[in-house]
Automatic annotation (TrEMBL):
Catalyzes the adenosylmethionine-dependent methylation of the exocyclic amino group (N(2)) of guanosine at position 10 of various tRNAs. Acts via a two-step process that leads to the formation of either N(2)-monomethyl (m(2)G) or N(2)-dimethylguanosine (m(2)(2)G). GO terms for biological process: tRNA methylation. It is found in: Cytoplasm. Coiled coil: none annotated. This is tRNA (guanine(10)-N(2))-dimethyltransferase. Residues 51-153 form the THUMP domain. Monomer. PANTHER family: N2-METHYLGUANOSINE TRNA METHYLTRANSFERASE, THUMP DOMAIN-CONTAINING. It comes from Methanobrevibacter millerae. Its EC number is 2.1.1.213. Belongs to the methyltransferase superfamily. Trm-G10 family. Keywords: Cytoplasm, Methyltransferase, RNA-binding, S-adenosyl-L-methionine, Transferase, tRNA processing, tRNA-binding. One of its GO terms (molecular function) is tRNA (guanine(10)-N2)-methyltransferase activity. InterPro entries: DNA_methylase_N6_adenine_CS (IPR002052), RlmKL-like_Mtase (IPR000241), RlmKL-like_Mtase_CS (IPR053943), SAM-dependent_MTases_sf (IPR029063), THUMP_dom (IPR004114), TrmG10 (IPR005885).
Length: 344
């Protein structure tokens, strides 16, 4: 069985990297096929696993907009016959809408949606069309000559990423990354629900909120006690209870339990103070301090500016790079997202 993921196109690689990381850490027996940017199929899923995988993907992913279960892979020429051949009573709960999304295709969206809707009505009893907030969404996705016929069973909570933007939280301080990127970084760290995740530069807690919502136990620390307290206020506001916060300099970090993941956005640039550590030394000090606090198979996912060369610093401590992504912020700043693990 197959799941169709419609992804954000705001970055060419991060949405796929995030999906791959979630499939890996959740040990999904499935493979991933990239159809085009923004369209990925998770395939070879057994019927026993499909529901669980569907729920995991919709609960975790940040850079994916929609996930649908593919009913049939059709074509422009065979679409009407294929739609008519499906037993829609099995998929639709009282009312439905058909919506088509195109990727590299010029098919007539409105005509196809209407025709598909009328064929489904013809084939079923006691089922109605409801364009606004239907119980069931029949999603058609056209890519070149192929049309995927799919049904949406679980929604991703897209509104969360709007509602939890940094300025909408009770404790605000500039410099917190977007909730979507924070969620993506948590996922890139391959952490699972119930495991312990640390952010030693927690600031206002943006990363810890996303990790807490994924079900992790979270620990945050910051050299600034106002930030430490602010993180706790924001975590409480989001209903996250399994957390601890500490007021401390990253150099003093000594965890009571080795962590399964570290996800962090260290300070850089002129506006953030670094607890009297000069320039790039904050990264060096951070790598030294964090190593012994991480489990041997733990991943570290961190942000840094393009002009800092992390490689010699991480190698000196015994880390190696697993993956890296570049996000252009503006003309003079590219943010680098690195996924790092202990060298074997
Ligand atoms: C870029 S901000 C982190 C933003 C955070 N991700 C958020 O959502 O708000 C970096 C944080 O590192 C903290 N910091 C700076 N130097 C530190 C040090 N030596 N040890 C621990 N925290 C430090 C700052 O107080 C600041 O809150």
């Amino acid at each position: 069985m197959e799941l169709l993921c419609i992804q954000s196109q705001e970055h060419p690689e991060l949405p796929q990297g995030e999906l791959k990381a979630v499939m890996e850490c959740e040990e999904m027996g499935a493979s991933m096929e990239v159809i085009t940017e923004g369209l990925v199929i998770v395939k070879d899923i057994s019927s026993e696993n499909i529901d669980e995988y569907y729920r995991i993907l919709t609960r975790r992913l940040g850079y994916t907009h929609e996930v649908h279960q593919i009913i049939k892979t059709s074509s422009v020429d065979e679409l009407n016959d294929d739609i008519f051949s499906i037993d829609w009573q099995d998929y639709i709960d009282e009312n439905f809408a058909v919506r088509l999304k195109r990727f590299d295709s010029k098919v007539d969206t409105v005509a196809i949606e209407r025709k598909a809707g009328s064929l489904i009505l013809e084939k079923t009893e006691n089922i109605k069309v409801k364009l606004d907030k239907p119980n069931s969404l029949v999603r058609l996705v056209a890519f070149q000559d192929t049309i995927y016929i799919a049904i949406e069973k679980y929604h991703l909570n897209k509104r969360h990423f709007e509602e939890i933007k940094p300025h909408k939280r009770p404790f605000f301080y500039p410099g917190s990354m977007s909730p979507k990127l924070a969620r993506c970084m948590v996922n890139l760290s391959r952490v699972k629900a119930g495991q312990l995740l640390l952010d030693p530069f927690c600031g206002t807690g943006g990363i810890l909120i996303e990790a807490g919502l994924v079900g992790c136990k979270v620990v945050g620390s910051d050299v600034n006690w106002k930030m430490k307290n602010g993180t706790a206020i924001n975590l409480d506001y989001c209903g996250i209870t399994d957390y601890r916060t500490f007021h401390l300099d990253v150099r003093e970090l000594k965890m009571y339990e080795k962590v399964a993941a570290v996800v962090t956005d260290p300070p850089y640039g002129i506006s953030t103070s670094t607890g009297d550590i000069e320039g790039d030394d904050i990264f060096k000090e951070f790598f030294h301090a964090i190593y012994d606090n991480m489990a041997d198979d733990a991943y570290l996912c961190m942000a840094s500016p393009h002009y800092v060369d992390l490689n010699p610093m991480m190698e000196e401590v015994g880390f190696e790079l697993a993956e890296q992504y570049a996000i252009k912020m503006h003309r003079s700043l590219t943010r680098i997202i690195s996924v790092i693990k202990k060298s074997e």
